[in-house]
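ok so i was messing around last nite and threw this chain in just to see what happens. nothing serious, just curious
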Amino acid sequence: MKHMYKNILWISLLSITVGMISCVDYLEKAPESIVSENEAFKNFTNFQGFIEEIYNCIPDKEKCYWTTSWNWGDDEIMNTEADWHMVHQVDLGNFWAWQAGRMSQPGQWLDKPSTNPTSTNKFDHALWPHAWYCIRKANLGLANLDKLTEVTSEEKNCIEGQLYFFRAWWHFEMMQFLGGLPYIEEVLPASGKLTLPRLSYQECADKAGADFRRAADLLPIDWDKTTVGKKTLGKNQLRVNKIMALGYLGKNYLWAGSPLMKNGPQTGGTKTYDYDETYCKKAAEAFGELLSLVENGETQYALAEFNYKDIYNHVKANNATSCFSDIFYTTGQNWLMPGTTEAIFRGPSTDYNGSNWNTSKTFGPKVRGLVEHDNIIHQPTANYVNLYGMANGLPLDDQHSGFDPNYPFKNRDPRFYHDIVFDGFKYVNAAMPADMEDLRYCSLHTGGIMRSDANGSRTGYFIQKLVPHTCNKYDGTYNWSGNLHVYLPYMRLGDIYLMYAEACAAFGGANGKSDNFTKTAEQAINTLRDRVGAGHVGSAYLSNSQKFMDEVRRERAVELSFEGFRFNDLQRWLLLTEYPYNVKTSQEFDRMENNEFFKNNDPKDAKVSNFREVPILTRQFSTKHYWFPLKIEDTSLYPEFGQNPGW
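result:
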């Protein structure tokens, strides 16, 4: 880290000039914002140019390499050719693999061998190196606020609020994986002895919380409604605002109050419901403040509609104004940035066609080239798919759920049909050569054509939540003409409801609520279920706080599936080491229907036999796996910057 500090000193000063030309496509700066170092902090336009390089550094998890991975919990497995990816390295317990140079390919977003904060190339950005760079840049900006003389109070607040937000955000993103770190609140000198100690996680969270709170108090809800924002009207959606700051304020406190952060790493799972109630109450108040603003119509945010006339093809109903799928991808809309009204925090995604060469070709079957390009496939584990309960709101293993293993795909939570590709699913809609027709309908039963470990599904399922199944050779959605743009938001409104429910449940059970929002934890969960048309939380889960928390966690798993949150959730709940969360399974069954059935009937109505789960692997984790190891070259610099236990 010392060598990082030295390099960052002069790089940050250099970025005062070059940083102002790095994000033109992203935040639509005016040409006059390109100024010399001496003018960098003089007025709003120049200072904003200095800040915009920080936005440019936010990694795009889905497109940081030709193929990549971001789901490292029990939620996903990849085909065997992708064993070099981080998802498999985590399965092996090789948590060193997050560090650049320790993997055969730089295929993940936490670290890279080389990065460039001024580049708009998606391959040039990673969390670890950019975090230290951007934290220093934020501190440099705060140290020079007194030079901001030609400015209105609104403009100064916007500048200051962004700097506080980013200082906290970059710390928080690293803390999720690495635990407590030195929390840097000043511009460190390029030389001299380093003595900054590693703080505990909660000590870091206190400092990040103070920064997020300052940001929330300084920033507007909607830049378009400010005087300064009118200069870039309609192009402010990605700028940091009050809602983003409140969202991360709550998330920061909920994480600090979670079982791992309260009790420390341990196995056994006995502390999984033991939260720090003081932090959870702080989290609930932050989320409550945010949700009150949303539900009172004071923000630009709202839950996207889940209203489809064809759920399998993600075709929205004629009366729908927004679409759940639009949170994650858009097609035929001139590469419109995904997110709709629900995405709260996103980074830049200027390489529109990058979706076609990366993410869009890593979710479907590679059998006989049905989905082209690299033989890499993201696929859901059967154990995770089983978390999608029934349409009546009950989990599959509830005796009253109505789940029938002979008809396992029938009457499931509506999100199952949106997110998951299962046996008999019509994968290709367009015309196909006669010798490819046997691939039109998915053969995902045991022994099916698409069940190869090498180029099919190891688990009996595929994912189409983030990328539509029409991204195949014949439907061609990933072709240039499809205008496909894929982006995974860091935070969305659905997550806020979930985190609010969890925080309230931690101190008040199903009836827990904040002082500044009307809904209880139960009502927050049911808000999301109402959105998709699923049944409310069952009455049997409301009186027991632990059973209710289990339903909150299951709802979180389903609503946020494959969006990159599951690993950190299992980690902070002290469940990463525990059965059944350390097991990845496949779904095995025999078909009772022939291919003709699927041509004329809904695949969810198909009958099967011998429906069973089979383990693929069991993760052998210990307490050390609750945190990633820090880089040896950094922990060797001075005694106060110690390594995580066990590494």
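not much to say yet. The longest strand covers residues 608-618.
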